[in-house]
Amino acid sequence: MWTELGRQALDYMLDVQQRSWLYLDVMRQASDQYIEHTSEGSPPVLVFEHELIADGLDLPQPVNYGLLRICAPEHSPTDPTKRPFVVIDPRAGHGPGVAGSKVHSEVGLALEKGHACYFVTFAPYPEPKQSIADVLKAEKYFLEVVAQRHPPATCGKPFVVGNCQGGWALFMLASAAPELVGPIMLAGSPLSYWAGRTGAQNPMRYTGGMLGGSWLSSLASDLGQGVFDGAYLIDNFENLNPANTFWTKPYRLFSQIDTEAERYLEFDRWWSAPFYMTRQEMDWIVQNLFVGNRLSRAELPDPTTDGLINPRNIRSPIVVFASAGDNITPPAQALNWILDLYKDEEDLRLHEQVIVYNIHQSTGHLGIFVSATVANREHSTLFNVLDLIELLPPGLYEACIEDLHPDMPFVELVEGRHTIRFESRSFEDLRAFDDGREDEKAFEVVERVSQVNQHVYDLAVSPLVRQVSTAWSAQALRLLHPKRVSRYSWSSLNPVALAVMPLAAQAKAQRQPILGPNLFSDMEQWFSESMVRGWDTYRDIRDQSIEVAFQQIYGAPWLRALLGLDNSHMPSQYLLDRDVALQNELKALRKQVSYLQINQGDSAAALARILIYMAEKSSFVDERAFNLLKRLSQEQVQGCQLPSLDKLKATLREQWSVMQQYPEEAIAAIPKLVPSAQQRQLIWNAVAEIAELHDLNNASEAIQTRFATIACALGLCSAWQPTKKKATKRRRSVK
């Protein structure tokens, strides 16, 4: 026994010694990589070849942004008939490129599927006096460049993805220039900044209040001579989960040094190179978004016009991708803007808006747009059905993604390894992601306190700080940040770190990892788990203490009264009712136009009406039905052909309005739209095949009745007899 224990001890000591040398050398490599990366200007960490096609420095108001064209690999050329993809990475302390830092990524998927792909990049340092308005104008110009290279009439409008902070930038861009974007995806993007669950589940939203508002970011910018150091933002991310920052992440590298080093260095190249913002940019973000929450209330000025940025101007479908495991942008922060902008589902439909959301159950914030697993499942599946999303009737949907299984019917109609369906959802489903919005009253107090403190700082403190701050002191402050000190102190510039290289090389050459059971390895693992529990306990106590302090301070009635705020909390959507009379007039005008369009149209209008009519009583829209329709639209039967998907998209909104106002009259008018009996038969056959996918014979009586109504409208009343017996043959042969 003792001999075996002694052998295990010797094996463990040798293993730990070798891992230690290898770990120290990897940390030296990470520091050298940081120094080399920053000396090169911190280029995007993209793994794909790319070229700059539009430079923000050339604009009338120069910015440090640019538009990259991702070069398609030779084995996967782009298809000029497919819509281009545009990816906007977050500028929240880190540099650009993480959405294309792996082959299996958003950028990689776009290229794999044959789409031309563009990437909005940015340089480490902003231009002097650069503002968010300047950036918005630059991004609008970039989309105009994409439109010139890919005319929408040829391939459709671009699909634009905004990751994290890139999401709110895209949200503003789509609101200010809705004509330039096709479907948009907001991946892990915070848009409703006060939202979240109590119980210390979403502690980051309390940060602004506990710091007294926005003045501290202004101070940091003034100390940097008008430049805000993104390293402070990275600190905020890391402090959110101290167990991962101070133990799990370094210990994972130490314990798996033989396999983890390459992955660690790849990620660290992006994570550890902070970027910068101007004071104007940082003040705008903190005051208007994180503290002010003004985006979803349409209170932000539109720099491209004289009006306000109103997200209800967005005309293209909006896809929201969030995760229940994300405590930086929890689902409530990603979705509550819908409750702010629209009174109910009917209001959403009246604005003819399509909103689709998908909630991952476990991945963290970075996993939403960095994880290869998430890219290959959620992103890939959603990218496959963009045309279907554009055909969805206005409303709120949840995208439900499932793995394929052998007994799934019509599996040949599924693209990829997963199937997707869009289930109708209500505003109550959105409210379930939050535990009520009464706690947002306290953030109104935070906003007012922030305004007071900011005013005092700007008048009394900022002039003094700017007077004593110099270029030398600003650079010294940046270099003395712990993140940079740790890099320079343990790099090849340090002779001690350099001396580790031969020891690490020897350890790698003579590596003897522990392969079998080992008591000391088990004790190490137990110690690691204890450390994680200890850090998690500290985090929980800290977050709960912050939440209690926040609620006690900003929830106090006396402070609210002192600041001139009443006790009522006005829901944000009422702030958007300034144009009620105009909306009512628009509804009346739309009803008149719809009445005139009842007897107007062609086979595309007729098919659109039928699909809308059936979808209203169906609980979901299936990918397989769309793929079947796409296949049938390419076939010709006796010289007749179904309308193309492009024609369906072009008429869908118009026909949806007609169906909402005059559903019975619109269905009854179908024979006038399709006078050809052969064309009506072709439409009926297609609808019958699509219906078979949904097992219509076992559907509700209401759906069967609607199907019979369609048959009669097409002059084929005898072609359908509602029955509860399961169908056993293909409906396409019915006549």
Descriptive account of the structure:
The protein is of the alpha/beta class and 735 residues long. Helices cover 53% and strands 10% of the residues. The protein is built from 31 helices and 15 strands. It has an eleven-stranded mixed beta sheet with strand order 1-2-4-3-5-6-9-10-11-12-13, sandwiched between helices. It has a two-stranded antiparallel ribbon with strand order 7-8. A two-stranded antiparallel sheet has the order 14-15. Helix 2 (106-112) links the parallel strand 3 and strand 4. The longest helix has 38 residues, at 2-39. The radius of gyration is 29 Å and the shape is globular. InterPro entries: AB_hydrolase_fold (IPR029058), DUF3141 (IPR024501), PHA/PHB_synthase (IPR051321). This is DUF3141 domain-containing protein. It holds the Pfam family DUF3141.
